[in-house]
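for the writeup, i need someone to sanity check this before i put it in the appendix. the sequnce is what the collaborator sent (i think, or maybe the updated version? ugh). structure was predicted straight from it, no edits. if anything looks off just tell me and ill rerun, i have time this weekend
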Amino acid sequence: MNGKKIAHLAMIGLLLFSLCACQSWGVGSVQPRQTEAEVIKKLGPATHIYSNGDQHILEYMHGRMGQVTFMATFNQNGVLLSYQQVLTMETFSKIKIGEADKATVLRTIGASSLTNFYSRTGLEAWSYPFKQDGAWDSLMAVYFDSNGIVTKLENGPDPLFDRESRGRR
């Protein structure tokens, strides 16, 4: 086999792997109007459950390396209204500084992968690793004051994937 064929086969393999990975995260596996029982049967138990008025939300967090969190929102009758990946710049932009509290953040983007408290500033940070624009390994930090109100959001490269911060070049 020549180099071009090998590269072509490698690209096909990578594409197939990517598609399989998406399926394992539940992408496209549930549809609006399904019942909560049907969704749980397909996706398994939720990692967290939140209430939002007469709606409830099942969170499907896919861990530190997974970089995704899906939220399944149901109406009061247990019918699926939406199912979406929430660790995106679009969803982060919905968190209003000075207004949103911890409960709002949980209902919007789910539980954090890492929590830190900075005694010097008195701020608590919840960190969310995600794939910014589908390409960049990023880490969004949501900072809360002592009253649990969002004071800032800060996005940057995820140090877990940053070779220079680990001393490799």
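The first helix runs from residue 3 to 24. Residues 6-28 have pLDDT under 50 and may be disordered.
thx in advance!!
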